[in-house]
Amino acid sequence: KVLELAKEYLAVEERPVSVEESKSAKEAFITSTTKQILPVSAIDDTVFPQNKITCELLRRFREMCKQELPV
User: Fold this and answer.
1) Are 33 and 26 within 8 A, CB to CB?
2) CB contact at 8 A, 48 and 42
3) Which pLDDT does position 33 carry in this prediction?
4) What number of CA atoms fall less than 13 Å from residue 22's CA on the CB side?
5) Is 36 exposed, middle or buried (0-12, 13-18, 19+ CB in 10 A)?
6) Exposed, middle or buried, 29 (CB in 10 Å: 0-12/13-18/19+)?
């Protein structure tokens, strides 16, 4: 579900990524069942100061989860 949402904002690829390639990203996040979507603020000395897309993905994902929960 996270990747489907992400496709609305950016090109999505599932593949291995090196640390060096990751450092050239404008934003980064990790996703898992327990963490949902978690912005990455830094990799080594490389800082990602803004996570606008990541925060929007998290907001939309939480909205979607609320709608799917039985009442």
Assistant:
1) no
2) yes
3) 84
4) 16
5) middle
6) buried
The rounded distance, in Å, linking the Cα atoms of 60 and 45 is 30
Cα gap 27→42, rounded to integer Å: 9
Alpha carbon distances (Å) from 10 to 37, 45, 66, 67: 16, 25, 24, 24
Output the CA angle 7-26-39, nearest 5 degrees. 75
Global pTM value: 0.76
Contact 27, 48 (CB under 8 A): yes
pLDDT in tens, 36-60: 899 999 999 999 987 889 999 999 9
Identify the band that residue 65 occupies on the pLDDT scale cut at 50, 70 and 90: confident
